[in-house]
Amino acid sequence: MKFSSLGQRLSGGSGIEHLMDDLGNALSATGPSPLMLGGGNPAHIPEMERVWGERLRDILKEPATLRRTLAIYDPPRGNARVIEDLAALLRQEYGWQVGPENIAVTPGGQTAFYFLFNLFGGRRADGSMGRIMFPLMPEYIGYANQCLEEGMFTAQRPRISRTRPHRFKYNIDFENLNPGSDVAALCVSRPTNPSGNVIPDSELQRLAALAKDRQIPLIIDNAYGWPFPGIVFGEATPIWNEQTVHVMSLSKFGLPGTRTAFVVAPPEIAKAVSSMMAVTGLANGNFGQSIAGPLIADGRITRLSREVIRPYYLQKRNAAMEAVEEFFPDHVPYAFHESEGALFLWLWLEGSLKSSRQIYDDLKKRGVLVVPGEYFFFGDDDPDWKHRHECLRISFAMADADVRAGIKIIGEEIAKAY
Length: 418
Ligand SMILES: Cc1ncc(COP(=O)(O)O)c(C=O)c1O
Prior knowledge:
Elements: H1 5-11, H2 15-28, E1 35-36, H3 46-61, H4 63-71, H5 80-94, E2 103-106, H6 109-120, E3 122-123, E4 129-134, E5 153-155, E6 158-164, E7 167-172, E8 183-189, H7 201-214, E9 218-221, E10 244-249, E11 261-264, H8 267-281, H9 287-297, H10 300-327, E12 334-337, E13 344-349, H11 356-365, E14 368-369, E15 371-372, E16 391-395, H12 400-415
The protein binds pyridoxal-5'-phosphate.
Pyridoxal-5'-phosphate (PLP) binds near residues 40, 109, 140, 142 and 193.
């Protein structure tokens, strides 16, 4: 059987798919279960699980809602009531001038990015290539294989500054950020997966100004950001103008199994996304919107984010950093990215004698699973950039005791890498 070149690209496997297989196989192997500090699954927060239980019971009690959830196709754009309510929430919380015409539902953020990247990137009518630019590498691995045409992504390395002993931060290198006429959109995750960076308001404003100047969209991935789930430990003001496209997912709010996200964008883009949804999927699943709809309507979605989800992850982040202080040898020149949001610690081992891949293998042998950092550096092919082989992503979403045990072993292994 012969697959097309596009078919081969989409089905040929990706680095992260192999890695996920590796993690899955490690899990199913006999022996003690590994400490899973690799995946991006959100934590199971008891208070949120109570909310899901309540919502499901309410849906079962209301025959009309049950029928709408299970037995009716929504329009491709999503449930009109939920979209109205989200627009009202954004007007009320942030003063954004948005209405239902600005919103389209997608089956998770991942699909939203697939639509958006291929809406703007790729071969244009004049034969030139439109590219998606990531102004701050490293970026979310899930973007890496989403382009339908080769060479659609381009990326900018960060400025790296040492902020205090054993800590660093990435900033956008505006001096070298110079998107040409080939750049069709800018995209950032905020907070960033993998680094836990939160692009400061001042940098986001500069990016927005750049996008406006070039008349291209600035796509902002709020998978961990505001208004939900709000896993942001410092200050980060959401912005809106006629150039911004936000993707807001229910996954890290606690509902990854419902595959639901919202694109909030200028009407032309929201309309295009809902048309792409109709072609590829007919309609969205209704479950996530049914569960979250009333929480959006009465504002509980932002209150739960502020009062339950954010404090929960902040406590877990603090517990993980305490374990680092306790177990990491001070003489090793390790450095963590300042942890400003999301579920991860991003460890940089500058000048390490072992690559992140080798350290990943050593850790796997000891029953600790993390993610080697090289997968998060795409759109920049320079093999000589050593930083890309010196980082590891460690999730702190698992049980505190597992995170602590894993960090102890990581501390022992990094001492052997110098
Ligand atoms: C930064 C980022 N964006 C998007 C996604 C996609 O999430 P979903 O498709 O579940 O909304 C993830 C998932 O981990 C993520 O970390």
